Amino acid sequence: MSVLVIVEHDNKIMNPSTRCVVQAALQIDKNPILLVAGYKCDSVVKEAVDLLGVESVWFADEECYAFNLAEPLAKLVGKVAESFSHILVSSSTFGKNILPRAAAILDITQITDVTEIIDSNTFLHPIYAGNAIEKVRVLDEKKALTIRASAFDAVGNKESACGVEKLAYTFENTHSKFIGQEVHKSVRPELNGADIVVSGGRGLQSIDKFKLVEELADCLGAAVGASRAAVDAGFAPNDYQVGQTGKIVAPNLYIALGISGAVQHLAGMKDSKVIVAVNSDEDAPIFQIATYGLVGDLFDFIPAFISELKTRGLAKC
Amino acid sequence: MKILVAVKRVVDPYVRVRVKSDGTGVETQNIKMSMNPFDEIALEEAIRLKEKGDCHEVVIVSIADNAIQETLRHGLALGADRAILIQAQKTYCSLDIAKILQKVVEKETADIVLMGKQAIDSDSNQTPQMLAGILDWPQATFASEIKITDKSVRVKREVDAGTEELEVNLPAVLSVDLRLNKPRYPSLPNIMRSKQKPLEVIELGSLGLDLKNRTEILEILNPKDRAPGVKVGSVAELVDKLQLDSKVFTGLSH
User: Fold this and answer.
1) B236 contact residues in A (CB cutoff 8 A)
2) Range with top average pLDDT, A38-42, B25-29, B221-225
3) Residues 6 or more apart in contact with residue A18 via CB below 8 angstroms
4) Helices B94-108 and B127-135, interaxial angle, to 10°?
5) A240, A251, A294, B90: which has the highest count of C-beta atoms within 10 A?
């Protein structure tokens, strides 16, 4: 049994979710191998070689991998897959984009959003927006899995770095061209790995008032999230969206402000350790899953909460 | 240009699904079904591209039992020109669906396959990528903007960090995200007209595919229940609970 983990990165830093995928890989095999495919991304390899439990890093440094395009990456995975029984990647937009294509090239099925590994063939993963959990056994010899990072702890670093093996595969890509990207730069922690998430919904009423959510987040050193309603209303950018079709988070503390708690939103946050819900509607479904619920007006609550945090010396602002 | 839109019939997104007590699946008897919301967005986009003159025909295709005919008629009422039903008696995994679709794409010589990014029942998010891989066509997933030029498509994609823009050559497979458009409702005259539009039924067996079982679903479980919560009366009480009971602020330093 040997496991390949595809490393997600932007040619500069390794995405922290890779640490959670390695944790999942270690449950199948003691010596997983990491694949770093990119262009001029030595800094990523430097991070990867230090990960606990990793046997070796396979490094493909070619121009065709510069922008994480699915076509050359899937071909590369198809090429190196022979030696592996399992191929794992994070269930991010990166992983979901490339792994199914690679699986199809290999003529194997894929399991999406694995939350638990029962044995090397059997996995749990949520379906129906997290309202049901499917226990599935894969009959294909090779298994392609995208791993829900929030369901696995991150591995730390080991004392001595593992070795790097260079791969010389390159593919001419006549299919697609990268034009550009717009990255929402934020000084706040990344939503996916944050310890605390503060999310706002339609109850925030406007883009200006949504800033209150950000203010509270900054006081807690938290990441900012949003419901679909808030994103559709233009209060927050798309990549803030938490839910079935947005990001799936499981922080220690999730604070839902003015979010009613539609099934699709709950799918993205109901595995959070502690959930706080503040809503003026005492019948809002969010209260059914909240650890602590407070019925009240958001615009009174947020400043009062911030001042209480300051009084107790808990505020970072 | 011909656009093929693949659609799936799923439990309506506003229905709260229940796991069957014997663990064999979720209750689907007497439950409202509708077109997968992402597929509606894909179909809407195809119709808009036709209205703009970028494409001459929109064909919808589904792989299901006869109950899907209602969903296909809905698609025709929205503006699709014709429908194809690949009649299948059981559900297939994404890879098999992709293989079936490949046959349809080749038969129809489609230029673009437009699909939802995921079905809200299986939540797999695989079929478009797999189809693109099998066809060796370019893919652009999670599209929030699509512009067709002569031989290529410019697509804005929603990715975790923000958005990115790709140019893919035609033919291509595109999967759509929520923000691409707002689907229309069918008008009554269009519903009437849809009854006259062609709906071709093809037996899955006639496609000559060898589809084997790739997975075995052992059990469908209920998600773990959360411990019941409490309502607090004031901000001070809330911070007390967070600080003392849940100890969530232990990692915070000031």
Assistant:
1) 308
2) A38-42
3) A5, A7, A8, A9, A34, A48, A51, A90
4) 50
5) A251
Angstrom distance (rounded) from CA A75 to CA B154: 23
Query: What is the β-pairing status of strands B152-159 and B199-203?
Result: unpaired
Looking at residue A242, its pLDDT comes to 97
DSSP 3-state helix, strand, coil percentages of chain B (rounded to 5)?
A: 30, 30, 40
Which pair of structure tokens corresponds to residue A57?
Answer: 């890093």
The tens digit of pLDDT for each residue in B149-174 reads: 889 999 999 999 899 999 999 999 99
Residue B21 burial by Cβ neighbours in a 10 Å radius (0-12, 13-18, 19+): exposed
How far apart CA B66 and CA A112 sit, in angstroms, is: 28
Measured between beta carbons, which residues in chain A are less than 8 angstroms from residue B157?
Answer: 93
pTM, to two decimals:
0.94
What gap in Å lies between CA A266 and CA A227, rounded to an integer? 10
For residue B198, the distance in angstroms to the closest alpha carbon of chain A comes to: 32
A204: which DSSP letter? G
Q: Do A136 and B138 touch (CB under 8 A)?
A: no
- The answer to whether residues A163 and A56 touch, using CB atoms and an 8 Å cutoff, is yes
At A11-46, the pLDDT tens digits run: 999 999 999 999 999 999 999 999 999 999 999 999
* CB pair distance less than 8 Å for A315 and B124: no
Residue A111: how many other CB atoms lie within 10 Å: 23
CB nearest to A177's CB, from B17, B166, B254: B166
φ/ψ (deg, to 5) at B85? -115, 120
